[in-house]
Every structure is written in structure tokens, then in C-alpha cells.
Amino acid sequence: MYNMLFQSHSGLWEITILLFIISFILLKMGKPKGKKITQMILRLFYVIMIISGLGMLITLNFPWLYVIKGILALWLIWMMELILSKSVVRKESGPSTKSYWTQFIIALVLVVLIAAKIISF
């Protein structure tokens, strides 16, 4: 059971990051319909990913490191949503998304390092 959840969860993460990049590129190219479609698929993947992550946490009896990783993953999903919602094709006076991108990079690096077992305690 754990192996099935793990394989689907890790595969979904890869697809999710790819869909996020595609959505952002479509947004910057000025194609709102394509961005909306990929963002809706991305949101479906968020839900499936959260469910598979919770399943793994239940199977492993909630180890602290993976609970922290789950919280970081929720932060990462939140940053992806903020970046896509706040990044519009704008003129010079629009709001900056640099802080969201910084948080996205930090959360992504931490989640990947915990998943690769480079960070552990």
C-alpha cells in the first residue's frame, strides 16, 4: 500500500511542477484560456497529491519529519497558487511577485531535500 502511494505521490509532484511552469508560461504569453485549463488540472493534482500524502502519513504513523514535510508541501502549493493568481500580464506599476518566488524556491528546495533524505533528524 505504501509503495503505491509513494509512487503516485512522487510522480504527481513531478507533473505538478511541470504544470505549474506551463501555466506560468501560458500566463506570460497572454493566453488566459490555456492557463485556466492547466491551472484547473493543477488544482486537481493538488487534491490527489494531498490525499496520497495523507495516506502515506497514516501508513507511517505520522513521523515528525514527514509531518513537517507535509506542512512545507502545503506552503509550496500555496505559493504556486499565489504566483499564478498574482502574476498577470501587467505594466510596470503592478504588484511584484518576487517574495512569492523566493518562498516558492525555499519551500521547493526544503521539500526536495527532505524527500531525498538529505535533511533528517
TrEMBL record:
Pfam families: DUF1516. Keywords: Cell membrane, Membrane, Transmembrane, Transmembrane helix. The chain crosses the membrane at residues 12-29, 41-60, 66-88, 100-119. InterPro entries: UPF0344. It comes from the Bacteria. The keyword Cell membrane applies. The keyword Metal-binding does not apply. This is DUF1516 family protein. The lineage of its organism: Bacteria, Bacillati, Bacillota, Bacilli, Bacillales.
